[in-house]
Amino acid sequence: MFSRISRYRKVPDVTAPDARGRLLAAKDARLLPTVSGEFRHMVAAGDRLDQLAFKYYSEPLQWWNICDGNPEFLSPLALLGRDGVITTRFPVAPRSVSSPSSPPWADLFRSVMAILGVEGVGISEEVQLVQEKVTVGGHAKPVWMERFSRAALVTYNRRNVTAATVAAGIEAAGFEVAPFTDLDQLGREITIPPKPIG
């Protein structure tokens, strides 16, 4: 029996076999509805989904509607930036490279993935056009130059690993690490969809 505000109330009943082959009553998989947001909420430290649901819907049990409106997050804790698994952006630069086009990325991947609790490593590269003065024939001319910045994006379980440990693994691979930042939800907006009808 589901309450009138349950997200499973309208999901059809099915039967599913258990380990012994008996057919048991169950609910079918609930597909995420297409939801468009009416409001945006800036995530702050201490936010809770039940409190947000009360603020926007006057019903704290409607927290799941906020989760439906933000399907890119795999868990309610991730939605509020409190998930155990986090991705941190570590700006990196190779210490010494024989060829600027081939920094020791394989060493970085190997070193960081060897840390227990690290789930994934990726490289982010950004290119910016910067105007500089170049002297040509005795005249200073403005030219646009490409400037590259690279960062290691490391996903890890912060209950087992600290960002400082990951930074040390990156440095051990021959890179310098600039101040790093967590890519979590604090200070970012989430969608608050309209209250479901019925």
How would you summarize what this structure contains?
With 198 residues, the chain is an alpha+beta fold.
- What's the number of helices? 5
Structural class of the helices, strands and pairings? alpha+beta
Q: What is the succession of H and E elements?
A: EEEHHHEHEEHEEE
Anisotropy-based shape: elongated
Please compute the radius of gyration using only Cα atoms: 24 Å
Whole-number mean pLDDT: 85
Q: What is the CATH domain class of the largest domain? A: Alpha Beta
CATH fold naming of the largest domain: Alpha-Beta Plaits
Count of folded domains: 2
Task: Please bin the fraction of helical residues.
Answer: 10-25%
Runs with pLDDT <50, length 5+? none
Which CATH architecture of the largest domain? 2-Layer Sandwich
Q: Work out the number of β strands.
A: 9
Distance between the termini: 16 Å
Largest sheet, if any?
A: 5 strands, antiparallel
